[in-house]
Design brief:
About 30% of the residues lie in helices and about 30% in strands. It is an alpha+beta fold. A hairpin with a 2-residue loop joins strand 6 and strand 7. The longest helix has 16 residues. Strands 1, 2, 3, 5, 6, 7, 12, 13 and 14 form a nine-stranded mixed beta sheet that branches. The protein has a three-stranded antiparallel beta sheet with strand order 8-9-10, with helices on one face. Strands 4-11 form a two-stranded antiparallel ribbon. The chain has one domain. The radius of gyration is 21 Å and the shape is globular.
C-alpha cells in the first residue's frame, strides 16, 4: 500500500467510519490519540475486514516498524514511506514535536530514532507523511496528509539553531558539560557541585490547515474533509497503475489539482505538485 492507494480507499469509503475512535474509558485524550493512530495504520491495509490475528499478520506484511510512544516515526511501510500521526482539537492548534524537530525526510542516522527503527530495514533515508487529524467533540472532521518535503525545512536549518545554542552554552565559565542527545546538560552548576541543569528542546509547527490555507481553505460546511499534498516528483515515483487509479476517480466531491507549493526552505520558490481533496457532507 502507498498513499495513492489510501486516497482511493478514502474516496471509496464515501464517509469515514470513525465511531470506533470515540474513547469510552480511561484518559480521553490519550485514548483518542491511540485510536486515531490505529485508524491511520488501518488505512494502509488493503482489507480491514479482518480478525485480530489476520490484522496482525497484515501489519507484519505491510509495515516494517510500528513505532513507540516517544520516538519518531509512528510507523514505516516496508521499502516505503514513514508516517507520523498528529491529532488536534482546535483549528488554531500548533503541533508539538517535543525534543525532535519536524523532518523533511527521515534519516537512519538521526539520533532521535531508536536502534530498532534503524536496523529494521536496510535504509538510509525515507520520505515522511504527516497525517494530521482534526477532531470536533471527539469526532474526526478533517484529515490532512502532507509530505515533510512540503511541510518542514531541511534538517540543516534546525540543526544550525541547535548548534548555535550548544556553542553558546559551551562558553559558560566554571561549569561542567556532559554528553547528551538534548540541547545540553550542565553539571555542577552551583559552587558546591551538587546541582545539574538539563536543557531540552520543545519544537512546534503550525498545523496543515494554517500552513496550506493558501492552497486549500478549510470548508466549514463539510462533515468530513481530506486533503493530501505531494510534489509531482513524488507522485511520479509511484507505480503507474496507482497514478491511474487516482486520476480515474469519478466523484463530485473529489478533486485533483495541479498547484504550486511554497518551498519550506525558500518560500519565494515554488514546487509543482498535486493537491488532492475529498469531502463528504
Amino acid at each position: 500500500m502507498n498513499i495513492l492507494q489510501v486516497v482511493h480507499k478514502i474516496v471509496q469509503q464515501s464517509h469515514q467510519d470513525v465511531t470506533g475512535l470515540t474513547p469510552t474509558d480511561g484518559n480521553r485524550l490519550n485514548n483518542l490519540g491511540l485510536r486515531f493512530e490505529n485508524y491511520i495504520r488501518d488505512l494502509f491495509l488493503p482489507n480491514t475486514d479482518l480478525t485480530a490475528a489476520e490484522k496482525e499478520a497484515a501489519y507484519a506484511e505491510i509495515f516494517s516498524y510500528l513505532g513507540n510512544a516517544k520516538n519518531p516515526p509512528d510507523f514505516m511501510l516496508k521499502a516505503g514511506d514513514a508516517i507520523e500521526v498528529k491529532k488536534m482539537q482546535n483549528l488554531g492548534y500548533t503541533l508539538p514535536f517535543n525534543s525532535s524537530y519536524p523532518k523533511a525526510k527521515l534519516y537512519a542516522d538521526d539520533p532521535m530514532i531508536t536502534k530498532a527503527c534503524k536496523a529494521i530495514e536496510d535504509w538510509e533515508v525515507k520520505d515522511i507523511i504527516y497525517a494530521v487529524g482534526y477532531f470536533e467533540q471527539q469526532r474526526l472532521r478533517a484529515l490532512w496528509m502532507v509530505y515533510g518535503t512540503e511541510y518542514a525545512a531541511d534538517n540543516a536549518h534546525y540543526q544550525a539553531i541547535i548548534n548555535t545554542i550548544s556553542e553558546g552554552m559551551n562558553n559558560i565559565p566554571n561549569v561542567e558539560f556532559a554528553a547528551t542527545k538534548e540541547l545540553g546538560k550542565i553539571k555542577k552548576v552551583d559552587p558546591f557541585g551538587v546541582t545539574d541543569f538539563r536543557i531540552r528542546g520543545m519544537w512546534y509547527i503550525h498545523n496543515p490547515k494554517r500552513v496550506f490555507e493558501y492552497l486549500y481553505p478549510y470548508d466549514e460546511k463539510a462533515d468530513f474533509q481530506f486533503m493530501c499534498l505531494l510534489n509531482n516528483e513524488k507522485f511520479a515515483s509511484f507505480p503507474l497503475a496507482d497514478q491511474k487509479l487516482v486520476l480515474s476517480i469519478k466523484n463530485p466531491n473529489f478533486s485533483l489539482q495541479e498547484v504550486q507549493i511554497k518551498d519550506p526552505n525558500a518560500p519565494e520558490k515554488l514546487i509543482p505538485g498535486k493537491l488532492i481533496v475529498y469531502k463528504s457532507f
